[in-house]
Amino acid sequence: MTQFLRRGMAAAITAVLITAGIASPAGAATTSIYTPPSPLPAGQNGDILKSEPSVHNGSKATRILYLSRDNKDKQVAVSGTVFVPNTPWNGPGERPIVAYAPFTFGMGPQCAPSKTLAGEGASDMVSGFQGGFVDALLGAGFAVAQTDYIGPWVEGSGEHPYVIRLSEAHTVLDVLRAAQRLPGTGLPAHGPVGIAGYSEGGSAAAAAAELAATYAPDLDVKGVYAGAPPADKAGLAKSLDGGMYVAFLGYALIGINQAYPEARLMDLANPAGAQLFLEARQTCTLDAVFRFMGKQTSALTKDGRPVAAFLSQPPFDAIVAENRIGTLRPAMPVMVEQSPLDDVIPAAMGKQLAKDWCGRGATVQWKELVSFTPFFSHALGMLSAPGDATAWLQSVFKGQAGTGNCGRF
């Protein structure tokens, strides 16, 4: 692909996001909030280690460092932000808190949403989507608890375990606990909560929906919105390879290497693969998309086989199975939404997740995102997903989630 075409695509995405008013500026340096105590103090999941004032669109924003657990159940420090609207809550009951699980933002320390939402770090145009989603939720009067997931933005945490089911679910559920325990916010300690996310965030939200009843039974989770969730990682290995968004497959491999070091993933890479790993781990989303688009993973392995070929054999088949979403029944109503023209996550993947949950007896609302073009349809879905998620969560908190539409899609 020519450099001219790459720049044209970047400009197109940039124009869409600027028009939507969701681009975030780069800005000031980061703070010591990202340096955890060493060793970590004994505490409960969701306990706050540090907090400091932050800024975002006129809300009361507080950046936090809190305790959570990785996929091996090891306690870790995780950063994020709690946002409280300055307007009174006019809905029924106490003000709800919604956990926002971020869309793919990158792997580098400079990419963390708690930084870019405050005008810090090195946000790109795609990272501006985070602000649009947070603003939609705040506009409905919800408080928002945003997690950065585990990653190198917190010192000593290693790489970001991208789309790893257990760790992302834990960090999403624990940021809700952290928001309930954060002093000075006026938020209820045992009030209603919800979860929302799109793309990587959709995967994290869906995983949290499955684990909430066992990992966080203390939370009163009223509903979960999962937009375009990558529920089956083996399917993504085939669909992303060699395409425009192969960077996301690279991110997933970095995540597997972080979460399952015993699998010795890097032993499969040739020098070109090792170099891509080193480069990708420093990038934010848009940089990675245009830097690595079109790469074939068969050119990055020692034996010339594509990544998908390895995922069907030990030990990777067990890793893929552990990270598949749809095997447990969510205890709360869930909405799954995806564009039928999605050019990143196969369109059938979200619908299959919804069907899997229906088959297990969950209350599921499946909805197709409005799509006008197959080009950038995944990114363009970011424009309507925040409004759809917010409207559905409003109905959930009013006790009007309904019975779903299982058997009708």
Question: What does this molecule look like?
Answer:
With 409 residues, this protein is of the alpha/beta class. It folds into two domains: 3-232 and 324-397, 3-Layer(aba) Sandwich (Rossmann fold), CATH 3.40.50; 233-321, 434 Repressor (Amino-terminal Domain). It is 37% helix and 15% strand. A nine-stranded mixed β-sheet has the order 1-2-3-5-4-6-7-8-9, with helices on both faces. α3 packs parallel to α13, α4 (165-181) crosses α5 and α6 (233-240) runs antiparallel to α7 (246-259). The longest helix has 21 residues, at 377-397. The two termini are 38 Å apart. Residues 1-30 have low confidence and may be disordered.
Quickly describe the structure.
The protein has 13 helices and 9 strands. The protein is α/β, with parallel strands linked by helices and 409 residues long. The chain has 2 domains: 3-232 and 324-397, Alpha/Beta hydrolase fold, catalytic domain (Rossmann fold), CATH 3.40.50.1820; 233-321, 434 Repressor (Amino-terminal Domain) (Orthogonal Bundle), CATH 1.10.260.130.
> Which residues form runs of ≥5 with pLDDT under 50?
1-30
Question: How far apart, in Å, are the first and last alpha carbons?
Answer: 38 Å
Q: How many structural domains in the coordinates?
A: 2
Question: Helix/strand/pairing class, anyone?
Answer: alpha/beta
Cα shape: globular
Give the biggest beta sheet.
Answer: 9 strands, mixed
CATH architecture of the largest domain: 3-Layer(aba) Sandwich
Q: Could you name the CATH homologous superfamily of the largest domain?
A: Alpha/Beta hydrolase fold, catalytic domain
Region (Disordered): 35-55
Protein name: Lipase family protein
Keywords: Signal
Signal peptide: 1-28
